[in-house]
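Case study.
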Amino acid sequence: DGGITQSPKYLFRKEGQNVTLSCEQNLNHDAMYWYRQDPGQGLRLIYYSQIVNDFQKGDIAEGYSVSREKKESFPLTVTSAQKNPTAFYLCASSFSTGGYTFGSGTRLTVV
Amino acid sequence: AQKVTQAQTEISVVEKEDVTLDCVYETRDTTYYLFWYKQPPSGELVFLIRRNSFDEQNEISGRYSWNFQKSTSSFNFTITASQVVDSAVYFCALIRNNAGNMLTFGGGTRLMVKP
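After joint prediction, the assembly is written out as follows.
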């Protein structure tokens, strides 16, 4: 079945560590996105990529980095520069003008 | 700039009641798309509906209905005869056509349906 796979489902990070969240899609979608959701709040865009080897900052890109070496994959690295990384992270993909498909999310907690 | 406002942060109803979730949006685009998503406790986003700015017809899907009014920039969502399984957070969202295909989300409305 086509879809988006995010892993891991739960992730714990120590202060000062970088961690990478995985996002893979087999929908042949051109565009991929990363959103952050804080408790009781909506989703905010971190980064997006409309084609391979190209990506753009969203509204809250500071402290995050991404890569898009393959069409199917859009990993997100949460760096030590992100001061408040505890949140729920959602990956999504779409055709250039089409609707979104979302992954099931990764819940990141700093310990 | 685009903005989506869901003024109701939390709504509580008793099963079988009807409930309307409000959504007001701002955009300078003449062509745009509006969405509703459901987020159950498990966290994934479930697509409910997409509406383009040229189609103001109301839509009904089972117990769900949507009222799109460009004159008031609103896209409200009504659940008829609510059920406990409808308990979730509901998000209204807007596609930002002038900057790629990015969704701008409202803050969400948490709906609690009590038996």
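Observations recorded in class. DSSP finds no helices and eleven strands in chain A. The CA atoms of residues 19 and 78 of chain A lie 5 Å apart. We will return to this complex in the next lecture.
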